[in-house]
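Risk register update: the risk of archive-format incompatibility is retired. Evidence:
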Amino acid sequence: MRSTRALAVAALAAVLTLSACSSGGDDDAGGDGNGAGDQARPNAASAPRDGVDGNLAEPDSLDRAYNANDEGVAPGETEEAIISKGNVHLLSKDVEKTVFDVQALVDKYGGEITERETGTDDEGDVRVARLLLRIPSKSFQDAFVDLEQVADLKSSNSTAEDVTTQVIDTSVRIRAQRRSLRRVEVLLDRATSIRDIVAIEAQLTRRQADLDSLEKRKAFLSDQTEMSTVTVNIERTPDEETKKKEKKDDDSGFLSGLDNGWHALVSFGTGLATVAGALLPWSIALLLVGGPLLLLVRRLRRRAPTPAAPEPADA
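Archived output:
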């Protein structure tokens, strides 16, 4: 009986031992499956959960966590970033030649003409032109001064905007966003449940869209700071101003006197013709009315008796 009881106790102990081992193995397996997301993140107890087990962290809190570990400003990003723009309005007798001169000037500074608009008159000659130039920012000042001297300058203005802070801020945000994407991708690889996968993919899509937007902004700022923009408007000089300028250049000498005398003669003839034209209607009216009246007066004078001469008085 004693041996039978001993065997029963030993068997019961073996069963309990096997049950404990089986339970421990199941717990370990469950921990590997459910805790995969926690293993993917260092310090999982204190780090925000990013789409695991339904406990989603707020995007802003995640961004602050990633920005806290950011490496800071990269070398070279502290350089001054300036967006330069200008407008030049020119007057020229030959608009086509001025456009050619502007093109030569742009080629000199390594720029390009990105837009070109022209307008012609009834004879087909170019009357106005509008050019949009992109010139390296380092040569903006020199190129702007040269453009003002291509033709007669009517007006010009330029602006400079400092965007250094925006460039640095955008670069820092891009690095933080890329780090955030890498972490979310790790979470996606370790996720096992459908709920976790859907939640993490939503975070991944949003963060990728934010990164694309930041990269586009950085590309725009880089383009604007590397290449300045100048708008050139060219207008043909009005004919009246051209004549005045030619007259000013030849305001003395025989030709000038001859021209002045001819204009004086024409002015006198024009005035005389004006007076004659004004008096002509009155002359016709007087002739029509005064002619018959004059004939009537003469006829009445002929019919009137001649008065007798007075007799001489007796002495």
